[in-house]
Amino acid sequence: MSLIRQIWLLLLGTLLLAFIGSAGVTISSARETLQTQLRLKNSDNAASLALALSQQKGDPQLMELLMAAQFDAELAPSQAPAWFVKLLPIESTPGVAQVSDGWRALGSVQVVSHTAFAHDDLWQASLRSALTLAAVGVLAGLIGHAVVARIRKPLDRAVEQAQSLVNGEFVTVPESQVPELQRLTRAMNTMVERLKLIFDAQAAQVEALRQQAHADPLTGLANRKHFLGQLGAALQREDGAAEGGLVLLRVLDLAGVNRSLGHAATDRMIGAIAQALQAYTQRVPGCYLGRLNGSDFALCLPVGGVTLETAHAVTEALSVVLPAFGPGVGIAVGAVEMRRDRHVAQVMSAADAALARAESRGAFAVEHGIVGEGQGGAGVTAMLGEGTWRKRIYDALTHGRARLVSFPVLDSQRQLVHLECPLRLQLEAQGPFETAARWLPLALRGRLTAAIDERAVELALAEIERDGHARCVNVSTASLLDSAFVARARTLLMGAPRQARELWLEVPETAAVDHFDQVQEMARQLRPAGARVGLEHAGERLARIERLFEAGLDYVKLDASVVLGVAGDTDRAAYLKSAVAMLHGLSMKAYAEGVTGPDDAQALWQIGIDGLTGPWASALRGDLVG
Description:
The protein is α/β, with parallel strands linked by helices. It has an eight-stranded mixed sheet. Helix 7 (254-261) packs across helix 8 and helix 12 crosses helix 13. The longest helix is centred in the first third of the chain and has 52 residues, at 3-54.
């Protein structure tokens, strides 16, 4: 039994005992008063009657007439219930007086009053007393309710704080004014603050290990292995860009520059190049940068058609900056347009060829190339117009030309955790179902992402009802920023509570960094409805989410770029182990994306990863099903 219920029972019991006691004392006192009044009345009536009879000089007939005149009256029916009369009898003590004729005693008279009138008065008095006490009891109950509510509020906050800790949300609450509860909330808040300090220390350690594993020590840019992992993940990702560009930059004769300028000046020159390139990553979401070796830098652009323009802009900017370091400092730049689903080796080979041509032309030369055949999405968009594309996407949603595809997430026992289900749209009747890379940029421009993600949730719930397998759908950052999307998603989940318990929803890591409050609110709204909420494509900025412990997330999926090659990279393994430990400490599951082979899978199991997805998991799942 809860403490509040015990307090209420104690309060009600006290009020009930007070009511019964007060009513009992009041009725008993009234009954004694009425009995005393009857006794006195009987005595007075007997004396009056004896005096009147004594004046009749002992004539029997006159005395009989007097008695008849005094007492021959019809008795009115009693208003008091029979049970009340039986429960509270009233004793009517007889009044006795002597009848005489002068000095001659004629006899005595005895008068006993009927108790019906007394019972009526006692009944009315009892009703008035009960109503008064009931009103007082109601008033006391209202006061008690206010007091209990005042006590309950800090108790509820303490319980919510404790439940938040269980859910991995480390929140503090205002201290109560009640001394006993104040000590409790103070102790809980102190514990939360200590956990936050521990998390901050873990996050700092994770970030340091990430830098060690993924970054070039001089510039802080991604090293070759990590950059190629990012590039490979972008080329294969369902929700990646359909087109993009790659710019390779090489410092000409770096060894000779180092001999002529000295090591320190050369490092400053390398830092200046890195700083100039980082301006693009800061201005353009989805743009990333790496240092491939001592002299080579790579810049990946998330859109197509601007690669050559960007290469020229970088070259012009550096042609102004680099001569200040000394004569003979120059760069060559190779740029290529690329399309999704190309292999990393194919893209890098084309970029290297363009860079070699630029290098053969001399300092600050730029060469351009294209990876793959055919016209890209940007060209088609330009021909059809954004309005036409918007209508195609809208028609696909309204006419049921949308479907989910499934990729398994497996645990260490090779059991299915859930199915990742990206949405594909049939933009033309009888045409192919296109990946998000094809239509997502256009949906973002047309503000259709909320409708698309809502449709994905509907399809996932229907698929769960069909076969019972848990499913995971992606929610874009744009949908997260649509204030109505979460409310509509909650309505869908509340309408299918059994299926909602098997639904997983995930947002990009960048959403948690840039729009933390919206991610937190989404988790608060949808988790009570049964869904699980997490992050996808995480790792690059995971430790920079300052309030990750308050987000209320269930899981985090680590990006393919941070898990690729973990089996043969001790620095990467150390980073992942630290990140997984941090997430487990926050009561979150950790999953790995884009796992390509059994060696990486085994290394990830040893690290403590809870599940993985990617080509290896899909192939294994196919073998298990077969």
